[in-house]
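Render this sequence as a predicted structure.
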Amino acid sequence: QMESAEMERTTADIEDTWTSMATIGFSQTNQAAYAGPGRWNDPDMLVIGKLGWGPRLRPTRLTPNEQYSHVSLWCLLAAPLLIGCDLAQLDDFTRGLLANDEVIEVNQDPLGHQATRTAKQGQTEVWAKAMEDGSHAVGLFNRGEIPAPATYTWADEGGASARSVRDLWRQQDVGSFTNSFTAEVPRHGCVLVRVR
């Protein structure tokens, strides 16, 4: 009897470098139509924490900002969160990346939508994902080498009005904004918010 798989690799193997992770993650927008409950696109494992085999474990080569971008993008993509590090040697930073319930909720949303790129300007990109409760999870990313502003506009989700914005990594409400939300994004970093 043949078993059917519920996920499909969409990329070559990932490495724990910014170039590898960004090339894989930011190339997934055309895969969104194929994602949903029971059919998940898999851009390969998360390369955070201590990686390797046996006694030769080493810390990921991704910077903290790059790790925030990595986990944020994989959650927005509704990707399987396959953990590639040694769970017995989690440090506090890696544990925080894996245990933020508001970030994981973006990945596990029952609607099962995969985010798509809604804006790109220079080295910044904005990716948005419709959530089951009518809100949108939004990642503002900076692929460049210096801090830069990125903006998400409500036109991306069907109209201009006041919306509340919550920073998911900090688990803090940012405030109410009309028409758009702009954040300064660090080098190779991300600001992950939920817009209601």
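Summary. The helical segments are 18-25, 64-76, 92-99, 101-108. The first strand starts at residue 7 and ends at 9.
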